[in-house]
Design goal:
four-stranded antiparallel β-sheet, 9 strands, mainly beta, five-stranded mixed β-sheet, binds zinc ion
């Protein structure tokens, strides 16, 4: 297994997913690593199986991008950034699927709310 240097993991100081630089092994804990948050510069122990996001979705700074305000009636594309007014939360669309009812839905990673499924193209 190749050694990962940079991961996206949950920072307990920022209370958010952050890019982190792995700093070293933790003695006696195979799945844990010392990691330094690139945002707040704190070093902490992260759990590679729990804290690290497997898919590399970067939500950092998306609130400064041009975002589409979410509405169930709109259609969206994977990779698009959206803003959810009710939750006051920014997210990035990571997937799309059609539900058994025929209704289209989008999978979104939100900065605060985490992974959510939302309806799109509601007629
Ligand atoms: Zn941090």
């Amino acid at each position: 297994m190749a050694r990962i240097k940079n991961v996206e993991a949950y920072c307990s100081f920022c209370n958010a997913l952050r890019k982190m630089e792995l700093a070293g092994d933790v003695t006696g804990a195979e799945n844990k690593r010392w990691a330094k948050c690139k945002k707040c510069k704190h070093t902490m122990i992260i759990d590679l199986t729990e804290d690290v996001k497997s898919n590399k979705v970067s939500l950092e700074g998306i609130e400064n991008e041009t975002v589409e305000t979410y509405s169930p009636k709109k259609s969206f594309e994977v990779g698009q950034t959206i803003y959810h007014q009710n939750w006051d939360d920014f997210g990035k669309i990571v997937g799309k699927e059609v539900l058994s009812s025929g209704q289209k839905s989008i999978s979104v990673e939100f900065q605060k709310s985490g992974h959510k499924k939302l309806i799109e193209s509601l007629t």
